[in-house]
Amino acid sequence: MSEQRALRRRIRVWLVVFIVCLVLSGLTAFPLVHELRWTEDLLTSSASPVPEHFPDLLEWITRVRTGLDEADARYPFVLYGTDWLAFAHLVIAVAFYGPFRDPVRNIWVIEFGMIACAGIIPLALICGPIRDIPFWWSIVDMSFGVFGVIPLLIVHRKIKRLEAMEQAPEREPVAA
């Protein structure tokens, strides 16, 4: 396998990982009400150390679950916003098919993704307090940007290397 082909393969593997994570993140935004009920049940089970060791986490999950239950029962249209959030994740994941097909030509999608990951941090720091989100939960939210940018930085570096390989003149074999 040529070096360029191997590099393209590694780029594609990283992109598939990133795309799968985006899709999973999007799909989990649809059933939020049920997910929070399951999460609360799991955290309050007799085997869970959460009530004893992380009471603030349990209190937050219970508060969020209660809010979602009330919104679902009285104002289900509010949850339509999370449906759009889920849809946005899926659409963004589709955009990464461009670099999967032609990484050099579509490097801008990777750069867009890196900018989006960076944007998570000010969003969480500004909107978190406005929406009464505990600071420690904003840190969890910001971690999506921090961990999301890692594969994109790796892919960006690999694409730049691939671009340099593609632009390098072909070397003719040296006669002995």
Describe this structure in words.
The protein is an all-alpha fold. It contains 8 helices and no strands. The protein has helices spanning 3-27, 32-43, 50-53, 55-74, 80-95, 97-101, 107-130, 135-167. Helix 1 packs antiparallel against helix 5 (80-95). The chain is elongated and about 80 Å long. The two termini are 25 Å apart.
How is this fold's topology laid out?
Blueprint: H1 3-27, H2 32-43, H3 50-53, H4 55-74, H5 80-95, H6 97-101, H7 107-130, H8 135-167
Poorly predicted runs: none
Radius of gyration: 22 Å
Distance between the termini: 25 Å
Helix percentage range: over 70%
Shape: elongated
Please describe the biggest sheet, giving its number of strands, its sense, and whether it closes into a barrel: none
Strand content: under 5%
Count of DSSP E strands? Answer: 0
Structural class comes to mainly alpha
Count of discrete alpha- or pi-helical segments spanning 4 or more residues: 8
What is the mean predicted local confidence, pLDDT? 94
Order of helices and strands: HHHHHHHH
